[in-house]
Amino acid sequence: MAVVTQVLGSEWTKIKSVRSTVWTLGVALVVTVALGVLISALVNNEYDRMSVRDRLVFDPTYVSFTGMGLGQLALIVFGVLVVTNEYSTGMIRTSLAAVPQRGIFLFCKIAIAGALALAVGMVTSFLTFFAGQAVLDGHRASIGDPGVARAVVGGGLYMTLIAVFSMGVAAMLRGPMLALGILMPFFFLISNILATVSATEKIAEYLPDKAGQKVMQVVLTDDTSPYGPWGGFGIMLLWVAAALAGGYAVLKKRDA
Amino acid sequence: MAGRVPGPYREWMIELEDLSKRYGDRLAVDHLSCTIRPGVVTGFLGPNGAGKSTTMRMMLDLDSPTGGTVRIDGKHYRQLHNPLRTVGALLDAKAVHGGRSAWNHLLCLARSNGIPRSRVGEVLDLVGLTPVARKRAKGFSLGMGQRLGIAAALLGDPRILMFDEPVNGLDPEGIHWIRTLMKSLAGQGRTVFVSSHLMSEMALTADHLIVIGQGRLLADTSMADFIARNARSFVLMRSPEQERLKDVLSGAGITAVPGASGALEVSGEDAAHLGELAARHRIVLHELSPQRASLEEAFMRLTAGSVEYHARTGTGG
Ligand SMILES: Nc1ncnc2c1ncn2[C@@H]1O[C@H](COP(=O)(O)OP(=O)(O)OP(=O)(O)O)[C@@H](O)[C@H]1O
Ligand SMILES: [Mg+2]
Question: Are B308 and B49 in contact (CB under 8 A)?
Answer without folding.
Answer: yes
